[in-house]
User: Fold this.
Amino acid sequence: MSEVLAKLAGGELTGFILVLARVGPLFLVAPLFSSKLLPSRVRGIAAVAISMGLTPMATHGQHIPGGVFPLAALVVEGMLTGFGFAFAIALMFAAVESAAAFVDAVSGFTFGELIGASGSSDGGVFAQIYSIVGVLIFLAVGGDDWMLRGVARTFALVPLTAGPRLGSLVGGTERVFATIFTSAVELVAPVMLALLVTDVAFGVVSRVVPQMNVFAVGFPSKIAVAVLLFIATLPFLGPWISQQLTLSVGAALSTLHAA
Assistant:
């Protein structure tokens, strides 16, 4: 088996397998690349095509072992490297989804999920809106190009025949994961503050005019305030995602060091 792998394309096949093991996690975890809107076959073809383009650069100057067990160990290490990079960027979209969940909960859009007979909802209205707008902005600022360049950069930080330093990888992932809540609050702070003021205002009105049905009036009012504030803060979403994308790619690359 070792002789067969060594003879096939002069080691290029084994190099391609190692590159594919590092690129593959992008299509499982990373935003846009792992979208369910893309069929699995399309994602597989894209992963193979990107790996074929990166193989000559990644294998340059590398001595790839031909044994089965060393190759299997390198495949696992390559997958860890790919998952570490993709996961750090995926957390940026996790912050956007968490921010949308905050707005849905405070504005009342999740009330239907609480009283609905079926639990098949795909999320609140703002969760879907923020997700779609986030993907569009991600494409507009060249997020896909940033990610591909970042994957290519990982081969310089962690060579194809080396493994990542697990301590640095785990520690960096924990630091990035801890920023999800603060990033989500930072993104929707104006909307949350406006909805809080609206709740306080209707609380005062309910004390002054107790005969008024505050629930019937307050629910559509909060929806209107949330929509207006979302439209008003939409221009700031693009620069925020662009900045967070830069920080996420930088943080992902900073966690990768060869063992």
